[in-house]
Write a structure and sequence with these properties.
single chain, 648 residues, alpha+beta, 6-stranded antiparallel beta sheet, 24 strands, 21% helix, globular
Length: 648
């Protein structure tokens, strides 16, 4: 329902820019208005935000950055997109598509636990929205019942992708009497891993969805002590106490879905929101591995929002008098399909911990990845490669442009024959990048890609393709390492992924090479003419493995699958398939201060540069100048690497 105002008007806080046509259903304490822009005549909705946000410059900048991406969500199924943010007369507000209805939070305050069919429909709509956003690598970060809007005709929309987290942080600070930004108070919907690192991802979104479904079915926000203890120290693949044990659900399939969503270790949850959709539609999936139930927490336990995640007692949520607890659903086990399987247990297997990174496109979004409990910057020195010469690992690749090193001296155990160069240490084919200058960066791009600079590099060699599973397995066997898990369906020809920078660097030294510098990587990808993609000025999905279709691939492809996407040097897969580690520390403003001759990045830092795009990202992140970065101890399902070597 909406309160129709007496003719077009305006209200304090939105100046003279808008004619307010109607007051729509509020979302919690936030008033919502349907308005018309007096200049463009467009009708949108304005959602009034806490006044404390108006004084937070850092928060406002983060919101505006996120909204650069959230505009891509307009029209996506199940999403009520936030398309703008403004502050007028010290009043902050979001500009959204017009959609009126109460939030799920508002409904849960008024009603008992909801019927199973309704909860299933809400879950399916929310999973549909998450799938659409995750497809472009955009993650919610603060999913809770207040972000789910229930329309009058049964429609369901999810709102506040990315921006809800910032608003929560500022609101929590204001409520505590503090200023500035800080992590939001841990609460019922926040995944256990976020207690360690406050960057959300797809798996933390799925955990939050599991909590929402649990609450909607049961009217309860209490979880068993043994389960919460398991969340404090999750072990991938290990059975965990059943979080739904005290709630005998009417629908066993919902119980299994929620069990899987609430798996303490991110790697044990569903592989994607699309997999959750399939499970909610009744398609079979492997079940979560749970152990005997623990007792539910006593009613007097403190609210979980007041306790650190995974520590102390969980809380009973306040309920209206006479409100009965309904049965809680259970999380389902993710299927290990031959398609894209999120294999993100590398360092969890090695060191048993999880971590997170910020992944930036137009603005930024968040990606999930696995991290060790603690990692040294340099892995221990690997043994020398075996003396036996290794033939080329991908001998059937089309020949690159003739490789003629001439008077340049090749590194040890690197040979040139019949116009091709390969390493006898690990079988890699290499291509020559001649000495000379090239244009680094892009003008109309992200801030850290500017300014354009003409850089001069010495000649070097770079691997023609990313290091493969077969190559990395040989390294693991030689050095006594455990082979990291790879996506289902991977063969020896696929790029190895789930490898942190530290291990990529160790491999490069073992093979007698090194990781390429960021400048070397970019020159190999674009040559001397400043092209935006290795093959030319415009994107061509048939030449690379990225998001958005058109490339005939699902998930990671074997190395060298896109010969038409070769760069000017003949190097392959420099746009898409898997991101690649570079040697450099990341510096956002390094292009302003770095040398023009053979730049090697800042002398120190916290994150290493990652380049090249992957099968999970779209055009903006597949450009040759696009920069990304993450901590060197982290590993990710679509990050691999290739090596480089000096020439003299």
């Amino acid at each position: 329902p909406s309160e129709v105002l007496a003719g077009p008007t305006s209200r304090p806080g939105v100046g003279g820019k808008w004619d307010v046509l109607a007051a729509l259903e509020p979302l919690g304490s936030q008033k919502v208005y349907r308005v018309r822009n007096r200049t463009t005549d467009d009708e949108v909705a304005l959602r009034m935000l806490p006044l404390s946000l108006g004084g937070e410059e850092a928060a406002q900048e983060r919101i505006r950055n996120l909204l650069q991406r959230s505009k891509d969500l307009v029209g996506a199924p199940g999403i009520l997109a936030v398309v703008g943010y403004e502050v007028e007369d010290r009043t902050p507000y979001f500009i959204t598509e017009v959609f009126s209805g109460p939030s799920l939070q508002d409904r849960l305050k008024k009603e008992k636990a909801l019927p199973v069919d309704l909860v299933r429909r809400i879950g399916l709509a929310a999973a549909t929205a998450l799938a659409a956003a995750h497809k472009i690598s955009f993650f919610h970060g603060e999913l809770r019942p207040g972000c789910i809007v229930l329309g009058p005709e049964g429609e369901v929309r999810v709102t506040d992708f990315g921006v809800g987290k910032v608003v929560s942080e500022v609101t929590a600070k204001a409520a505590a009497g503090g200023g500035g930004l800080g992590p939001a108070k841990p609460g019922f919907y926040r995944a256990p891993e976020l207690a360690r690192n406050d960057i959300p991802d797809a798996r933390s979104d799925l955990y939050a969805l599991g909590c929402i479904l649990f609450e909607a079915l049961t009217g309860d926000r209490r979880l068993p002590d043994p389960y919460r203890e398991a969340c404090a120290a999750p072990r991938p693949g290990a059975p965990f106490p059943d979080p739904t044990a005290a709630h005998p659900l009417m629908d066993s399939s919902m119980r299994e879905v929620i069990r899987r969503l609430l798996a303490p270790a991110p790697a044990d949850r569903f592989e994607s929101a699309a997999a959750v959709m399939a499970a909610l539609k009744g398609e079979p999936f492997p079940r979560a591995s749970v152990v005997s139930p623990g007792a539910m927490l006593p009613p007097e336990a403190a609210d979980p929002a007041d306790a650190p995640a995974g520590k102390g007692p969980a809380a009973a949520s306040p309920r209206a008098p006479g409100k009965a607890a309904a049965a809680a659903p259970a999380a389902a086990k993710r299927p290990l399909s031959p398609g894209l399987v999120t294999v993100v247990v590398l360092v969890a297997v090695l060191l048993g911990a999880t971590g997170w990174m910020v992944w930036k496109g137009s603005g930024f979004a968040a990606f999930r990845f696995i991290a060790p409990e603690a990692g040294e910057e340099e892995a221990e020195a690997p043994p020398p490669p075996p003396p036996v010469d290794v033939p080329p690992v991908l001998p059937d690749l089309p020949a690159p442009p003739p490789q003629e090193p001439g008077a340049l001296r090749l590194p040890p155990r690197v040979v040139a024959k019949a116009g091709r160069i390969h390493s006898l240490a690990d079988g890699a084919e290499l291509v020559l990048v001649p000495a000379g200058d090239f244009v680094l960066g892009a003008e109309d791009a992200n801030e850290d890609e500017r300014p354009l600079r003409r850089i001069v590099l010495a000649p070097f060699l770079i691997d023609r393709h990313e290091v493969t599973v077969a190559q990395f397995r040989r390294f693991c066997d030689a050095s006594g390492r455990r082979m990291p898990p790879q996506p289902a369906g991977s063969t020896g020809r696929h790029p190895v992924v789930n490898v942190p920078w530290t291990e990529a660097n160790a491999y490069a030294r073992w093979a007698g090479r090194r990781l390429p510098t960021e400048a070397e990587w970019e020159k190999a990808a674009r040559g001397g003419d400043g092209r935006a993609f290795p093959w030319g000025a415009a994107d061509d999905p048939s030449r690379r493995n990225g998001a958005g279709g058109g490339d005939g691939q699902e998930g990671l492809a074997p190395a060298g699958s896109f010969p038409g996407g070769a760069g000017p040097t003949g190097a392959l897969d420099l746009s898409g398939n898997a991101f690649e580690w570079c040697a450099d520390w990341y510096g956002e403003g390094y292009y302003l201060t770095g040398p023009v001759q053979d730049p090697k990045g800042p002398a120190q830092g916290k994150e290493r540069v990652v380049r090249g795009g992957s099968f999970l990202v779209g055009e903006a992140s597949l450009r040759t100048s696009f920069r990304n970065h993450l901590e060197p101890a982290r590993a990710f399902e679509d990050i691999g690497f290739r090596c480089a070597a000096d020439l003299k």
